[in-house]
Amino acid sequence: MSLTYGIIGCGMMGQEHLRNIALLEGASVAAIYEPDADMRARAAAAVPGARMVDSVADLLEVAEINCLLIASPNFLHLTQLEEIASVRPLPVIVEKPLFTAPEDASRLAALRAAYPAPIWVAMEYRYMPPVAKMIEEADKVTGGIRMLTIREHRFPFLEKVGDWNRFNRNTGGTLVEKCCHFFDLMRHILKSDPVRVMASGGQAVNHLDEVYSGERSDIWDHAYVIVDFASGARAMLELCMFAEGSRYQEEISAVGPKGKIECLVPGPGRFWPEHLGEPPVPQVIVSPRQPQGPVVLEVPVDPQLLDAGDHNGSTFYQHQRFQKAVTAGAPVEVALNDGWWAVAMGLAAQQSAMTGKAVDIASLAYTPG
Fold this sequence. Notes:
By secondary structure, the protein is α/β, with parallel strands linked by helices. It has helices spanning 12-22, 37-46, 56-60, 77-87, 105-114, 129-142, 168-171, 174-177, 180-190, 303-307, 314-328, 336-355; strands spanning 3-8, 27-33, 51-53, 67-70, 92-95, 119-122, 147-153, 194-202, 211-212, 215-216, 222-229, 234-240, 250-255, 259-265, 283-288, 295-298, 359-360. Helix 4 (77-87) runs parallel beside helix 5 and helix 9 (180-190) crosses helix 12 (336-355).
């Protein structure tokens, strides 16, 4: 069985998906719904054989599609999933975040209970080769993780169609929009659910003077988040979105009684300054307590995959696994509950940072039941 995709939303991330689907054996794109004229034209040029349609409803009428990708703005994801569920519930891969507000949780619960086909939440960071290598080795190296730290020092939010990503009401807030990736990694690496979230964050440097239709951008650009897990492990996120001068964009470390393992991940190659030569190669570093002395392993990424997107090849690997889930009945590795938890943690972190108080996860109504 081949995958024949229908695409909902074909802006910057949607076009990365198009490039990676093109590299996937046994996969094609039959139809695209993208309302913005410029992005629609770019998508048509990238996949000239695809039919351009004018609505989600029109897309679902295209007989040959047998799976869907949703890469529309955040605040549309849940509504579009609900429309798909009511008309033609095909297997779907949906970009993060699943939802953007606490009051959406009951709708998501209803969708989860009734949807008959696989829904895969796009959490690309799991599939970056250096991150995947670190996850594979972490328990053996550490002897059981007790502390996990994720640092992302990166460029500011990019410009999106209609500047939708400049406002918390559209994105869920930076700790949802951007950081749900990292909260998903925390749960995935630690194999445990959160019990308490403490955060501090805000808008310090970026977007301070940006005004759209008379309204100033309120999206945050930095934060610290600490999460206590049921297993007793602790995790911390450090986000800075005015640090594009960094050599590595993501630095992840896990520490336990036996030792430490780290991975270092560069940002998109297209942003690396030419005068600095070749971009850095991703690394995994193993630092045992006995015998002391770090061991550095380079984890290069296929250049073709680097050229296809900004996520170190992970978008391609994610589609490979989605393909196996749809065609061979393999497990959905990032299910609705995973995407739901990632948003719930982000919302709790936003709440903690705004109130100055720790948030007890058990007190929240929007966590998965």
